[in-house]
Amino acid sequence: MVKEEKFVQEEDVNYGSPATERRMSASGRRISTVDAVFGEIVEGGPDYRSVGWIGTVALMMKTQIGLGVLSIPAVLDTLGMIPGLICLIIIAIITTWSDYIVGTFKLRHRSVYSIDDVGYLLFGRVGREVFGAVFVLFWIFVAGAGMLGISIGLNAVSTHGACTAIFVAIAAIVGFGLSSIQTLGKISWLAWIGLICILVAIFTCTIAVGIQDRPAEAPTTGVFISDYKLFRNPTITDALSACSSLVFAFAGTPAFFSIVSEMREPRHYTRSLIICQSGVTITYIVIGVVVYYYAGSFVSSPALGSAGVLIKKVCYGFALPGLIVTTTLVIHLPAKYIFVRSLRGSSHLTENTFKHWATWLGCTFSIAVIAYLIASSIPVFGGLVSLIGALLGTLMSFQPMGAMWLYDFYGEWKAKRTPYLTFMVCWSIFVIVSGTFLMIGGTYGSIVGIINSYNESGGSAAFSCADNSNSVAA
Fold this sequence. Notes:
mainly alpha; Amino acid/polyamine transporter I; 3-stranded antiparallel sheet; 15 helices; globular; transmembrane helix
């Protein structure tokens, strides 16, 4: 209990570069860094403070551009182009602010490693356990969606060359192997490769949809005219489900705690964030508008299947490395959280002991297996993405960040009552309330959508061998 109280009280106004003490650890090895989260980082052990600001950009963008962007044209088809773009921009603004709060909160509370630490500061032990559980579940579900995306890609490239259940298992094995790389600094080069590959894939699809006579799922005879709509009149459940998919597309926020914790210079976090969010938002708008404009209601979900069989093979050929890296990251993040929490305060956290490796590989293997079971049990890409965004994405990207700002500045507002602080109090409350509304309504809409998908011919059975690469957005 004394240790926990020390954690709460520990503030850091000069947080930035790690301490550079040169002394001997208990095992006789020199310590090059003493970090508030990882403790004594010894020479020859894993360096958990090695990510530069450019590598941070790649990691941030790769946690977002991947699975979410593939569902955005279908979101515009549900909401209509103009309401869809308005919702996308609003969610981009809210999540960008949330991401910014992650960085500033970390600078004020240097011992914070993950969102469970935030939960402890805000709500005590109950908050820690609840936030920690949701964090792990969120990334496990995202990893499941990543494995499902990889299986779709393998089916597309191979023309359904094997049972889909086998492809999902292959995705799980590859994800486990790559996610077991110990530090984000070593994974950042993979993030660049994955980011470039996924961008090439989605822009190739976008150009092909614009050049071709008609999208892949459109009638093959007659003159094709895109039936895109500027406005639509969706049911409330469909609208909330679509908004949940947009939340998922921007829901890299909980990963940013881990990323800033492994930066060499956390003060450069905001610089990386601005580049990341600008690039992500522009990409989403361009991809969503162009693909939906040319494909209309015949847009596929994932969107890479919208431009015909040949282009789909080409696009998924480029996209597969990106989807693999996404799955790698989202297995690594919850595994690292469990690993750090299990060994925090122990020399085994930063030294290459048997307990270190057994714990680490056990974490990555367990996360990969659970994600595999989820991907095999809910093989409906659009429905799974929407469910993750609604049930877990909002709770990780909206409410905690509003509460974090109030935790740091509510007392100052009560003392000063300036217009700026009053606005920020109202904004923080709005973020909390809107996130709660989206979480409840979106979860209901997503579950209804998944049930409907199973009841229709497009629904796939759990652990199915059927080809899952030929889906049209509902």
